[in-house]
Amino acid sequence: MVISTKYTHADLLVMPDDGKRREILDGELIVSPSHKVPHQRTIGHIAAVFVRYLDRHAIGQILLSPLDVIFSEFDVLQPDVIFVRNNNRGILQDWIRGAPDIVIEVLSPSSISIDRGPKLKAYARFSVPEYWIVDPDVRAIEVYRQAEGGYELVSIYGEHDSVTSSLLPEFTLPVAQVFER
Predict the structure, then answer these.
(1) Which domains, and CATH codes, for the chain?
(2) Fewer CB within 10 A of the end CB, N or C, for the chain?
(3) Residue 73 near residue 9, CB atoms below 8 Å
(4) pLDDT tens digits, one per residue of 64-87
């Protein structure tokens, strides 16, 4: 007889605080090392643009990992950057409980297959309206939007482009700024 253990958010709460990132996808525990400096710098550049935008357009909040986004008892993720519009702020509780409006993942060597595979499917399954994948290797940002049956790739923004979003009126994120050193 095979006994299968499905991890829950309650299980995460009793695990050691050893600096590793722990997430759960369909009850399966995913453990990753902490991020390196270039990864965190990229997140900081993205957050800075959002903060300046939100100072002028108070339409929501930007939050950064590590922060649990609890989609279900068996699905708890920590996107690198999280945007929640004001009309969705009820999900902002002790952690985020429900689907944010935009989640952003910055790829790292240890996360590429998860961010492009199971996380993309999970964010679509839990109806996150937009999912952005930031790829430092090619210095580009992919924007996916909720569509019938999952996500559709809206655009790949290169280093000379600016990301826009229908969820963020008058918002522009110059891709080159994201990858500044």
Answers:
(1) 34-178 (3.90.1570.10)
(2) N
(3) yes
(4) 999 999 999 999 999 999 999 999
Q: What is the pTM of this model?
A: 0.94
Nearest in space to 11 (alpha carbons), one of 32, 34, 35, 27: 27
- Burial bucket for residue 5 (CB in 10 Å: 0-12, 13-18, 19+): exposed
How does pLDDT run across 97-140, given as a tens digit for each residue? 999 999 999 999 888 999 999 999 999 999 999 999 999 999 99
CA distance 166 to 168: 5
Question: Are 69 and 96 within 8 A, CB to CB?
Answer: yes
